[in-house]
Amino acid sequence: MMSDTFSRTEIIGLVVRLTLVSAVTFLSIKWLMNQVDPTNKSKKKAKKRAQEQLRRLAGSGNTPLSVDKLSDYEMMIAAHLVHPEDILVTWEDIAGLQGLVQELRETVILPIQRKDLFTDSQLTQPPKGVLLHGPPGCGKTLIAKATAKEAGTRFINLDVSILTDKWYGESQKLAAAVFTLAVKLQPCIVFIDEIDSFLRMRNSTDHEATAMMKAQFMSFWDGLSTDSSCTVIIMGATNRPQDLDRAILRRMPATFHVPMPNAPQRLQILQLILENEPVSSEVNLTTLSKSTDGFSGSDLRELCRNASVYRVRDYMRNVPANEEACISNRNAMTDSEDEFHDALRPITMDDLVKSLNKMKESKMHCGSLPVPRLDLD
User: Fold this and answer.
1) SS3 per-residue string spanning 142-163
2) What b/e sequence results for 159-179 when a residue is b if at least 16 CB atoms lie within 10 Å of its CB, and e otherwise?
3) 175-179, 219-223, 285-289: which range is least confident on average?
4) What is the DSSP letter of 346?
5) CA distance to 224, 284, 358, 359, per residue, from 371 (Å)
6) Residue 53 to residues 77, 169, 293, Cα–Cα distance (Å)
């Protein structure tokens, strides 16, 4: 009996020791793998986000694609998939570019929505590449999102940094996954912002891995043009089209210039920005639009935002200390928020002029607006 008891004890002790050794070994290997590949956690987060987005698409009936049918590389790209409901930009949010919007509708959107009208011709198929080029802040990204929203396509907002991997051959596989995933999700628009940073002019100083990734990307891009039934569009935006490789420009036959807005366009943009804002009746947007030469749509929004902040500053300077304390104590109540907004004065012309002069001074110091400072009458 004593020998049996000791043998059982020894067996239990051996099992415990083996369990501890196995646990320590597993944790050590896991720690070493994380040290070897520091992006392991980000990859897991990307895969989780991709699964959520694809389940949302499958649940809404937009695509029958199963998560299990995607490779690990396609899951990494799918993390940048934007659900159609999350695209809040429409054509109503874009002002002053009616001609460009109409051309996009006829060139890109109509062949996608009405395929029955273009089945008998290879020349009227939607372009496989669309380039939006123009100065920064003029709405290129908004146009891309609005195009995807209007066409009802899936939208992959591709971050090109995800295509770069330190392991040899991984970048090429990720580049290929962009197209294989887009084909599975079609109709699909793959949007690459600042595309010149990724597909710039090739030269002999390029790293071998970068050159191979670009070649892989362009090879799969050519594969789209050979399949007329494939509805995948690569859309890029840049303010330096001259830096793009000629081979890329050939693959983007539909090019649209998004210019700096002129005075009538700036007037439409200002009207859109201030449409739902409290504005004084003495504000003259026509005069303001003529005095904002060289301002992009993004600049005009910032101008109006600064002008709106001035009225809040005036209110906070003039509010009594006891009233300010009451507001701070009741800031979670809807009634107090309504009282706060009602107490604010509307945006005046002086606010807009003050914001305009401040932005012009800043632009002149940056060298982006070589014009003298002007005051409005």
Assistant:
1) HHHHHHHHHHCCEEEEECHHHH
2) ebebbebeeeebbbbbbbbbb
3) 219-223
4) P
5) 47, 22, 13, 12
6) 12, 27, 42
CA 248/CA 255 separation, integer angstroms: 12
At 178, the amino acid letter reads V
* Residue 347 near residue 274 (C-beta atoms within 8 A): yes
In this predicted model, what pLDDT tens digit does every residue of 216-272 receive, in sequence order? 888 888 877 666 678 888 999 998 888 888 888 888 888 999 999 999 999 999 999
Q: The whole model's pTM is what?
A: 0.75
What is the per-residue pLDDT across 321-333, written as a single tens digit (0 to 9) for each? 545 555 555 554 4
Rounded to whole angstroms, the Cα distance separating 105 from 306 reads: 34
Opening angle at CA 221, ends 216 and 227, nearest 5: 130
Structure tokens at 125: 């198929």
Q: In this structure, are residues 143 and 257 in contact, taking their beta carbons and an 8 Å threshold?
A: no
Structure tokens at 41: 């956690």
Quick one: tokens of 122? Answer: 């290879």
**Cα–Cα distance for residue pair 372/377, rounded to 1 Å:** 16
Contact 188, 144 (CB under 8 A): no
- How many alpha carbons lie under 13 Å from residue 304 in its C-beta half-sphere? 24
Both tokens assigned to 118: 């273009």
> 303: how many CB neighbours lie within 10 A of its CB?
22
**Can you tell me the distance from the alpha carbon of 310 to that of 91, in angstroms, rounded to the nearest whole number?**
30
Q: Name all domains of the chain by residue range, CATH numbers in brackets.
A: 43-257 (3.40.50.300), 263-366 (1.10.8.60)
Residue 82: beta bridge partners? 155
Task: For residues 368 and 52, give the distance between their C-alpha atoms in angstroms, rounded to a whole number.
Answer: 43
Return the DSSP state at 249: H
Q: Cβ atoms within 10 A of the Cβ of 261, count?
A: 27
Residue 79 phi/psi, 5-degree rounding, is -65, -20
Residues 127-157: b if buried by 16+ CB within 10 A, e if exposed: bbbbbbbbbebbbbbbbbbbbbbbbebbbbb
Q: How far is CA 367 from the centre of its chain?
A: 28
Cβ neighbours of residue 16 closer than 8 Å, sequence gap 6 or more = none
Per the listing, tokens 């949007």 go with: 191
